[in-house]
Amino acid sequence: MNHKEKQSITHYISIRFAAIILIMAAIMILFISYFSNKTIYFDIRRQIRRESRYDFLNVEVRNGKILVDKNFIFRENHVQKLVLDNKGRTIRGHYPDKELNNYPLNQWDFRRVKCSSGYYYIFDRPFLKKDIITNKQILVIIRNIGKETDFNSQYQAMKYISYTFTFVISIIGLLLIGAVSSRLTIPMKEIKDTADTIGIEGNLAKRIESATAFKEMDAMIQANNRMMDRLEDLFHQQQQFTSDVAHELRTPASIISAECQYLKKYGGTINDYMDSLTVIARQNAKTNEIITQLLQLSRLEQGRIKEDFEYSCLKDLIESICEAEPLRMQKQISVQYDLKNISIYMNISLMAIAIKNLINNAMKYSENQSFVKLRLWEKDNLAIFEIEDHGCGMDEETQKHIYDRFYRADKSRNTPGFGLGLSLVQKITELHKGSISVKSKVNEGSIFTLSLPKEAAISNMRSQEAF
Ligand code: ADP
């Protein structure tokens, strides 16, 4: 037995799928933040660089001195500007945070730096200016500084929208997983409850009625219900069988018991004893016949048959059985043979039982001096054996049940028999991988047809015990 603790399927599915969703959400957020930060960075860089493009027009150098025109705008669109000389010394302008003064000159470089008041971007734009006195080229730097929080990049909004979207999708995903996994378990719970009802109350008629949305679940429920139909059927058959056996055995048993009581009370002469013994022997033979046929059926059903198969002549077997049939003489039935010389692979003793039952029935359900026709021919590697009688025949309803154990048509009740013969014939035919069929008309007669493979198609026989 497996003692490992079992976990709930809802739990199992929810945890795994929730983990997948959370991992995917985390990856999405990392992805969004990486690419949006990059985009925001380039957007701010573009804004800051654009601001200082024409500033060189408002700066001039005179005799080595850098002079800033009054038109120079030191703060515009969140960008603070400072004019620096080639050593990085401030000529004009103010730093928005003193710590920014520590960052050395770096021409054309765009940097993101951290100060105690927040993140800033620095861009040092250089240009060469001609000294209007000495005509020498002097390097002038415009340092552009922007505070990160002052910039309003459209990408910033997109970043937060994407975060919110990922979060909402993840929550919806988690809720859906919870709903789906608990929906999955509803039919399972129903299956369990039904199984419990059957197990505890013994109510075999119970079925699972679940309108599940899942195809596989539906298939499982239907398979389960089919299995229950079959089990209920088998259970009823079993009940029917037990009551049939009891019923069939009770008649000879009560006759024997009545004979014994009679003998005890009134039996005096040897003749009384002889009469009673005859009755007892007849009833005993009947009981024996029922038991033998039941045993044969049960062995056939359980596959406990000796693999005693051989090629043998079917024609000879049919003829010898028909010749030995006592009813033939008793009822003066004439037999017409049309038998081809065909050998098939068969278990002779079982096939003899099948043929005997069919011939016996044909004569049993015919009037005296009637005639029976036996035909044997070959078609597509099959041996076809046909028994035609001109007896009472059967209606369609009767034909449906003749292979059921203990079934006897109402009008056959006055004829000896137990309703086991055709069940045996059917089982024996199946064992030989053959088939049986019947055509019949009430008061006109019946034709039983056995189709048997000639070759050894019998491969899956289990042998344990001699038949
Ligand atoms: P039994 O003959 O012992 O009653 P079977 O299993 O051989 O049992 O047959 C079952 C029933 O099928 C019979 O009771 C009878 O009603 C019907 N049946 C079988 N063979 C014939 C036949 N040749 N003609 C008419 N009815 C038949």
Tag the structure with descriptive keywords.
467 residues, alpha+beta, Helix Hairpins, Heat Shock Protein 90, 3 domains, six-stranded antiparallel β-sheet, five-stranded mixed β-sheet, 9 helices, rod-shaped, disordered C terminus, binds adenosine-5'-diphosphate, phosphoprotein, HATPase_C_sf, HAMP_dom, phosphorelay sensor kinase activity, membrane
Beta content: 15-25%
User: In angstroms, what separates the terminal alpha carbons?
Assistant: 39 Å
Largest sheet: 6 strands, antiparallel
| Strand elements, count | 15
Q: Please tell me how large the radius of gyration is.
A: 52 Å
Shape: rod-shaped
Uncertain runs: 458-467
Mean pLDDT: 87
Based on secondary structure, the structural category is alpha+beta
> Helicity level, as a percent range?
40-55%
Bound molecules: adenosine-5'-diphosphate
Count of DSSP H/I helices: 9
Number of domains: 3
| Topology order in helix (H) and strand (E) letters | HEEEEEEEEHHHEHHEEHEEHHEE
Oligomeric description of these chains: single chain
